[in-house]
Amino acid sequence: MPNSAYRVESDSMGEMQVPADAYWGAQTQRAWLNFPVSGLRLPSSFIRALGMIKLAAVQVNVELGLLDRERGNAIAKAASEVSRGEFDEQFILDIFQTGSGTSTNMNANEVIASRANELLGGKIGSRAPVHPNDHVNMGQSSNDVIPSCIHISAMEGLRNNLLPALETLRGELFQKDTEFEEVVKIGRTHMQDATPVRLGQEFSGYASMIDHGINRIKNTQEHLAELAIGGTAVGTGINTHPEFARRVVENLNEMTGLAFEEAHNHFEAQGAKDAVVELSGALKTLAVSLMKIANDIRFLGCGPRCGISEIQIPAVQPGSSIMPGKVNPVIAESVCQVAAQVIGNDATIAICGLMGHLELNVMMPVMAYNILQSIEILARVTRIFSEKCIAGIQVNERRIEELIDQSLALCTALSPYIGYDEASAIAKEAYRTGKTISQIAHEKKILTEEELKEILDPRRMT
Q: Model-level pTM?
């Protein structure tokens, strides 16, 4: 007895049972059975890009007279629905699949063909009047579609999410630079006391790190803007109209508002994924910067009574299940964990980049997943860091004054006047006796009272 929950479809390898209500077909079903690896799927941003490419392609094929308008209009409507996320649940495949992403490309072709046939009065799963390969995939190959999807989804993620989040964080840090400009505190090197610095100067350094990170990311966009579409199987453009690539890119630019262009060299665009490796490197550098900033915030706020405690971090949740009243720097810790993930993603992407063998990179689905995850989680945690931590940081002025008064590093300012060795002796005596540098210097009468007051002024040292 036939199972009414399934329909039977065929691909080049034979028959497959496909769930009766599924828009995908035999090739997708076969891949779903072949790769039950992780449960990780390509994100909606990637599926959006895939839908836009199919939409741009069918528009061009109709314009060029390669596809009749009735089929083309149905495919265009279906592809548009895919790009809007209306069929995301139909994209079921694991990222650990064929390295070209052919299974995901066929997933899109089959879903769009089924939906187009439905719109034309036919049944989902039928291959007529719209065929997934002959019509939806016309002028394309997985080998140029999938790399183009990576670039499009990454560029949209940068523009719409990550760069705005970074600009907000940069603004908050510069605001703290101004707010804390007059706060003089002890500096630290090697985790030991050093000469004074203004708290605003510390925050200006953080703001500059984010500013540099923004510029590094922007510098990768020139190469990321090149799309492989039009290269088809190996970069030669076989089975594609000479005007196809240019026109598809123009349509994509209109859809996205971005400035993509046809790859300068299709063999580079498909045989290598260096643009993605380059972007990942910039994201890794940003992750390193964020971890440094987040850890500095943790250190400067450690306490509240028995640590450095020069700044007060906003309390956002209870910190312990056993210690009442404890509050932890959880936002900064979240930033550090995201940074670790992004650094790990970069290592994966670098290995994927190494797998550009001959005319095709064969680790693109994993590369796509990791680069898009890095963009997404960096954008989200950066917004949280700005809003729930940096914006609410306050100064513990009393603690700052206590620490700077006790610092032995103030003796550094004496060296030009009394020499390194005598200044070192004063520091050692202050440490041994528990007195301050100022007290020892005045007791020894090494300089006049007026001179010592000027030389040992912490603000002057900044």
A: 0.95
Q: Which of 4, 12, 190, 264 is catalytic?
A: 190
320, 321, 386, 415: which is the annotated catalytic residue?
A: 320
Reply yes or no on whether 190 is catalytic: yes
Torsion, CA 455, CA 458, CA 460, CA 462, rounded to 10: 140
CB-based burial label for 238 (10 Å; 0-12, 13-18, 19+): exposed
Closest CA to 251 of 68, 111, 61, 82: 61
Pick the CATH number of 22-138 from 2.70.150.10, 1.10.275.10, 1.10.238.10, 1.10.10.10: 1.10.275.10
pLDDT in tens, 331-356: 999 999 999 999 999 999 999 999 99
The percent of residues above 90 in pLDDT, for the chain, comes to: 82
Residue 320 annotated in active site: yes
**The domain over range 144-395 is classified in CATH as 1.10.3660.10:** no
Q: How far is CA 434 from CA 30, 198, 310, 403, 405, in A?
A: 76, 25, 21, 13, 12
Q: Which CATH superfamily is domain 407-455 in?
A: Fumarase/aspartase (C-terminal domain) (1.10.40.30)
Angle in degrees, CA 104, 109, 115, rounded to 5: 125
Measured distance CA(148)–CA(133) in Å, rounded:
18
